[in-house]
Amino acid sequence: MSFKTLKFTLNGEPMEIPVSPSDMLVDVLRDKLELTGTKKGCGKGECGACTVIMNGKAVASCLVPALKAMGANVETVEGVANGKAHPLQETFMDLGAVQCGFCTPGMVMSSKALLDENPKPTKAEIREAIAGNICRCTGYVKIEEAVEAAVQKLQEKR
Amino acid sequence: MSAVKIDEQVAKTSGYNVIGKSVRRRDALAKVTGEAMFSTDVKLPGMLYAKVLRSPYPHAKITKIDTSKAEELPGVKAVVSVKNTPREKFNTSATMTFTVPHLDPVLDQYIFDDVVRYVGDEVAAVAAVSEEVAQQALKLIDVEYEQLPAVYDPLEAMREDSPDIHTGCHEGKNVPGDIVKIAMGDVEKGFEESDLVIEEMFKLPVQKQAQMETHAAVAQVTPEGNITVWSTTQTPHPTRMILSKVFGVPHSKIRVLNPPYVGGGFGVRIGCSGKAEPIAVALSMQAKRPVKIVYTREEDFTASDTRHGGYVWAKLGVKKDGTFHALELKGILNAGAYCSFSCEVPGVMGAMGLSVYRIPNENFVGYTAYTNTTPAGAMRGFGNPQAIFPLESVVDMAAEKLGMDSLELRLKNIMKTGDPWCLPYPCGSTGLAECIEKGAESIGWERRGKLNKPGATKVRGIGMGVGTHCSNAWPFCVDYDNAYITIEQDGSVQLATGVPDIGTGTSTSLPQLAAEVLGVDLDTVNITFGDTASTPFDIGSHASRTLYAAGTAVIAAAKDAKKQVLEYASDLLNAPAERLDIKNSTVFVAAQGLTNSCSGSGVCKVGSGERTSITMKELAAHAHLRNKQFIGVGRIVPPNSPPWEAHFAEVEVDLETGQVRVIKLAAAHDVGKAIHPAIVEGQIEGGVLQGIGYALSEEIKYNDKGRQQNYSFHNYFLPTAEDVPEIDAIIIESNDPSGPFGAKGLGETGLVPTAPAIANAVYDATGVRFKEIPLTEERVFFGLRNNKA
Predict the structure, then answer these.
(1) Predicted complex ipTM exceeds 0.95
(2) Would you call B686 and A92 a contact, using CB atoms and an 8 Å cutoff?
């Protein structure tokens, strides 16, 4: 197997790592870079647990060949808290949006991608943004409330 | 009511310092930052990766298995199969460790057998330096099968001409274990004396837990033979017992732990996580290196327990005035290829189905039959949803026949505190009447019948369903709990309990109980959980029991520790222990209040000062320097008590497409006491949505080759964020006399009466009674069309 050097920006830092053409981004993140916050729930892009933000868009990292990230700006859940918890993380914690926690990183990333692009989303836009993220614990009620509350928090900051 | 409002209410009325408050969960920060460790994240030096070869046939004899080519593949370190693994029969579910003494657990599985009984059954496993190499090696295993006849339906499986899936079925063809029979009064006479008898058959689907983290285990075997297993189990201690039996290693040499987080459970891993734990251990023993196995989502679907589908008959006898007089329930459920919890599920089904209403003459018969499908086991509700959908459907049918409001009919017949019932523990509390009242108010029950305009193609309806459950597994299983509370030398508190936190927040709510009893600041209480090496035995997280049962042990341990603290403080504060109490982590003389200054009173001498109080920190340090530590032990057999719930659904049915949309679901739950209101709401909301899935979209079907047709999130239809209706989680507190600060079970009730509430609402909207779920567009479309014709 021929390895190639993947060069990209990961959570704001330049990163270089040898990967094989068959490696998926999720496996490079989890196994090679040991950033296990990105979860793997299906490996087929059906559950959203592996969601990361690539060039500003939420993507299922299990569907992204690692070499597609060449030169890209990739953000994982580990990069969201910048010294202190992001408002989304605060509201997830405070409003009971976390249960088993396995979908949480993906939910945080999908919501963050939404808020980065659209700081005042409607309820329907929030639902659409997390519709690809399956949560089996919460019934999504408190997750939605947490995203709405984070929108408020971010507005107040501005 | 929102969590915040409840907090305010509690603060005003209860006088509790810690419980009743939605404090930030202990696991929240780790989980939102991605730091939280799950089994699938564990990585050890030298660790190998495992893959499993699974049967492509629903029923076959393995006539030859040759693993030599796989073993020769570079990077392969161990191959295990029927040839080199223990011939020790077991049951992957914890039932083999806690079946009650008058019954024998059904042990019908090996890690690998020379017969495979469903598509996905384990044939062999490989450990290699990577998953890719292990996967490649599977293709080099040479297996020859002699196909056997297969059967997929439980009624068919019981016929004499069907294949025997297992031997030793003493109750009937392919029926594992013992038939469950529950009876009260004289049901024959009861029906004779009834003015109206409704009898119907219902068909229930196979539902999947679909917890987000697939099954996983990492096993490490030391040269001395000590085994450590990190895994996704809901029951570390019973899982250790299973591994001990399979491998013939003493309990004391095995450690099973969660790492510490588990990505959901919903019953699927009460015992082993599929077969992840025993396969990882078998491979690690061979390879003499740590071995990790992570199930793919497809393996999780096809090769680990599902909910039981099957057939249920319900017969209700009613007097003219609406008094329920006789009830008969019968269930024949699909066990799948191995027994798992198939002997217990019918028991809970009958017990819960017969306990909602006060009926003098009742009868239940229930059992399962083996088929060549994925094994069925525990899933949230554990037989109860299979009883309540039929029961609450016939109750609605009776109301219509009698010309009564179905809500009034229910109110007239529901169980009251102290009523006789079939369970061996009393009905200690019920807030069901209040649940019905509050739920009806939320949904606007009075709007029923006035929702639709003539000729509309989308019609609305409102329906309800009620139910109960248990707060732990007794008398269906052995059930007891232990907890330790250690007051450390600095006065901080270490709580150890053997239950895991599978997402239900026990690592937050159990410390809340300890802090409340001890009178200490919650922040000073740490908890160790889900680890057999550092916690005392506990049967684990299932049966809605964790807070109620493990919580009872935590309270006992905290009371024991507190007693020791107060006795020790008695000398220092110069007052009898009975007059002392602890508040804000300070021991004080109750009559004199919380003050650090009592200059001149001369009642207390610690160091050079004189006081009527002493902080836990000072006290623990004082004790330490005099060779003393406070260790509280809680050893309890929990009582049991029924939680209650009333669900109200408003639906919209598209008459042209058959699509059912839930507009609102009001779920009022008598939880006894909400220890952490936000967690309580989360349990209700999550349970409701799983119930909506059960009612509308979730179903595993098999084709004629025994293959699952719904084995991934792509073709098994879980509700997504866009499917969520307005859910009103209503908390009713009946303050149960037996539970921790009045709390009862809660983990399963959210699912239980959701399906009948929706089906009854669909009837209200369309006038068509559906006796089979899920109410998919196809089923509803044809149901509506056939009804017209």
Answers:
(1) yes
(2) no
Identical fold for domains B3-36+480-636 and B426-477+641-789, yes or no, is yes
Instruction: Enumerate the residues of chain B whose CB falls inside 8 A of the CB of residue A39.
Output: 38, 40, 212-213, 263
Across the interface, of A101, A102, A139, the residue whose CB is closest to B689 is: A139
Query: At CA A88, angle to CA A114 and CA A12, rounded to 5?
Result: 70
B-chain residues near A41 (CB < 8 A): 212-214, 263, 297
The letter for the amino acid at B580 is L
Task: State the helix-helix crossing angle for B276-287 and B236-247, rounded to 10 degrees.
Answer: 50
The residue extents of the domains of chain A are 4-79, 87-157
Q: Where are the domains of chain B?
A: 3-36+480-636, 426-477+641-789
- pLDDT higher than 50, residue B7: no
What integer best gives the mean pLDDT of chain A? 97
CB spacing of A100 vs B266 below 8 angstroms = no
Q: Does B594 touch chain A (CB under 8 A)?
A: no
Q: Which residues pair with B261 in a beta bridge?
A: B38, B501
Please tell me the distance from the alpha carbon of residue B279 to that of residue B111, in angstroms, as a whole number. Answer: 7
Do residue B689 and residue A140 have CB atoms under 8 angstroms apart?
yes
Q: Which residue's entry shows tokens 């039959």?
A: B369
CB B678 within 8 A of CB A142: yes
In B637-750, where do the E strands start and end?
A: 644-654, 660-670, 726-732
The domain defined by B3-36+480-636 folds into Aldehyde Oxidoreductase; domain 4 (3.30.365)
B24–A40 CB contact, under 8 Å = no
The alpha carbon torsion through B457, B458, B459, B461 (nearest 10 deg) reads: 160
* Mutate which: A24, A141, A142, vs B, most B CBs within 10 A: A141
On whether the CB atoms of residues B439 and B647 are closer than 8 A, the answer is yes
At B366-391, the pLDDT tens digits run 999 999 999 999 999 999 999 999 99
- pLDDT per position as a tens digit, B391-412: 999 999 999 999 999 999 999 9
- Residue B507 has a pLDDT of 98
Q: Which CATH class is domain A87-157?
A: mainly alpha
Segment B649-686, tens digit of pLDDT: 999 999 999 999 999 999 999 999 999 999 999 999 99
Pairing of strands A51-54, B310-318: unpaired
φ/ψ (deg, to 5) at B568: -65, -40
Asked if pLDDT for residue B10 goes beyond 50, the answer is: no
Determine contact: B40 vs chain A, CB below 8 A. Answer: yes
Residues of chain B positioned with their CB less than 8 A from the CB of A109? none
pLDDT band of residue B610 (cuts 50, 70, 90) is low
Which residues of chain A neighbour B209 with C-beta distances below 8 Å? 136
Give the architecture-level CATH label for domain A4-79. Answer: Roll (3.10)
The secondary structure of B196-209, three-state, reads: EEEEEEEEECCCCC
CB within 8 Å: A144 and B679? no
Average pLDDT over residues B133-148: 98
Say yes or no for a CB contact (<8 Å) between B721 and A127.
yes
Q: Which fold has domain B426-477+641-789?
A: Aldehyde Oxidoreductase; domain 4 (3.30.365)
**Pair B657, B630: CB distance under 8 Å:** no
Contacts of A37 in chain B (CB under 8 A): 33-35
| Contact (Cβ atoms closer than 8 angstroms) between residue B687 and residue B748 | yes
Contact state of A44 with B712 under an 8 Å Cβ cutoff: yes
Q: Which residues partner with B583 through β-bridges?
A: B586
Q: For chain A, say whether B22 makes contact (Cβ under 8 Å).
A: yes
Phi, psi of B524 (to 5 degrees): -85, -5
Cross-chain residue pair B212–A128, CB shorter than 8 Å: no
**For residues B635 and B484, what is the distance between their CA atoms, to the nearest angstrom?**
9
Q: Among B363-372, B607-616, B709-718, which stretch is predicted with the lowest mean pLDDT? A: B607-616
Strand order in the sheet with B613-615: B580-583, B586-589, B613-615
